[in-house]
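@channel sequence for tomorrow's demo:
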Amino acid sequence: MNKHSNFIVKELNNLSNPIQGSRDTYHDTNVAGLTLRVTSTGVKSFVIRKRINGKPVMTTLGRYPAMTITQARVAAREVLNLFSSGVNPNNKKIEQRVKSITLQESMRDYILGRKHALKAKTISDYQIIFNSYLSEWANKELVNITRSMVVKKHTTIGDKSIYRANAAMRLLRAIFNFAMSEYEDSNDMPIISHNPVQKIKRNWFKESVRTNIIEPNDLKDWFSAVNALPSNKANTSHKNASETVRDYLILLLFTGLRPSEGINLAWSNIDFKNKLLRIKDTKNREDHTIPLTEHTLNLLDIRKKASLGKFVFPGYNPDKALVNSNKQVKKVINDSGVQFLLHDLRRTFATYADSLEIKHNTIKRLMNHKNNDVTATHYIHQSTETLRKPMQLITDYILEQI
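structure tokens (generated this afternoon):
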């Protein structure tokens, strides 16, 4: 049904719904071009229909009665003026929407846009950094985040942690780089023309590279404290948890695995028959396979016999992996006097391997570091079995120290 009338409240309120699957259209005689569309469910929408370059374009102004007749007429005149100027108001609305996009929305778009390239752990780390250091800008429009604001933010965070300050700025820089290439106006020009993080330039905080390892002379005290975790007074009520962390720490030291790889190990990663540990799609997006020595196999075999779920190191719920080991790590530090982070165990493994004069190319393979040597990468494919001897050398060295 098409009908022309001077829109009034009483008339619009009393409009009947069309039959299911159809839509009635009413045209305002006060503002030519203003139309009210009514659906079979009773939804009433003010719209404008015009042609631009011969193509029909419809713009929805709002729904009645949330939008009043007076508001609809004012909005209709503005939209009709845009049409007469050859401007598509829909593009204008999109442009205005993009210009008002917030940091929180850009963060969401950035993660969705790169989801195929980002690990779940990386996304989680980004969320933690954002929530901890950038959340006060969450609802701020990107176009209103200035260079001076970024410099001040970097300095403020740096007063507490230079590492977190740099990490927050790296994330912010990545979001802005994404926005610069992703958000465009109706003329295909970027909405964001510069990255305010570039203002920092030479003022990034200098980060010292961590070199901490567990020194061979400290290894016996460290190992004793790790083995004593289940008997620690604070662990009597949750002995299983302390035993899990004990074995987790030992496996990290003897294999050089990344902490995240170790904590998420499933029994499907362990090949007891061939004495191998296999991890698919690691941090560097390459599969990782290493031989297991009798020492690590015995540890895993004991855990397997007592296992109630699919994870090697489960949390309180046997169907979920251990969340973190922070409390138990602190107990080891207090009892042994040896300061360490989980990643230090990986560094310790590599350092011991180097001290045994194991070839660097072999250490790279044990650590699952990418090899930039073209010949080694494309032409030399070594068997995992060639790693068994060096892995045993490292195991023997650690056992000698403890």
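heads up for whoever presents: Strands lie at 2-5, 23-28, 34-39, 44-52, 55-64, 270-271, 276-279, 288-291.
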